[in-house]
Amino acid sequence: MPVSLLENVAEQPSAFIRRPVLEIRDRSVRIEVGGESYWVASSKCQRNIGLLIFAVGDLESEATLLDPLSKSVTQFCRLLASDDYVRSYKIRSGAELRAIWSREHRAYSHVILIGHGNGTGLRFAVDDWLNATQLEGILDVDGVEPKYFVSLACQAGQAAFGRPFSQMDACSAFLGAFHSVHGAIASQFVQSFLVFHLLEGETTAVAFRHARERVPGSTSFRLWRDGAMAS
What we know:
The protein is of the alpha/beta class. It folds into 2 domains: about 5-45, no CATH class; about 50-230, Rossmann fold (3-Layer(aba) Sandwich), CATH 3.40.50. It contains 6 helices and 12 strands. It has helices spanning about 60-80, 95-105, 130-140, 160-165, 185-200, 205-215; strands at about 25, 30-35, 35-40, 50-55, 85-90, 110-115, 120-125, 130, 145-150, 170-175, 220-225, 230. It has a 7-stranded mixed beta sheet, sandwiched between helices. Strands 1-2-3 form a 3-stranded antiparallel beta sheet, with no helix packed on it. It has a two-stranded antiparallel sheet with strand order 7-8. Strand 1 (about 25) and strand 2 form a beta hairpin. Helix 1 (about 60-80) packs parallel to helix 5, helix 3 runs parallel beside helix 4 (about 160-165) and helix 5 packs antiparallel against helix 6. The longest helix has 19 residues, at about 60-80. The protein is globular, with a radius of gyration of 18 Å.
């Protein structure tokens, strides 16, 4: 849970603190920190926090767009949480995604996808375009826990991609841009969402709304859950 929600707690090396739940009452949980007992809204707590970042390379625009965007997002996540909670990879094929995902997925709650989209898929340098059904074959492994996915690829929030992606067993919620999105705006959006969702402890829908309100210009994002557009 976010340390900022606890009063009189000494400064911590991470924005989050992990403690066992001692008691549950209605929609609140009781934890103990430094000998003090605190009641906290259960909606403010996460069972697990981990930020996994995939920069899906296309060779052509990596140096000018994808690499700077990936570095921006990764460095922000390292400010938000300690290095133990953050992992970033550059991949260029579905096979690389499969190999890393099968090994790493259990440790992470939030996945950020950086790359190019066309409304129906993500572009991989080796495999060209992979749609949501093809990605489902990679991500829906045995025992996978649902994750929050944020795609910074253009048009990923459109129904042709966002709806089926959000129906995966691996997906708790999917956030994506409806139109083309500038790299700087994409970086700002995901940073705002993570601050509201993780640092302020807001629900996914509320954090998404607050992040979307702060996007400059006409860029629009969508939130999908279980095949339905939630916002």
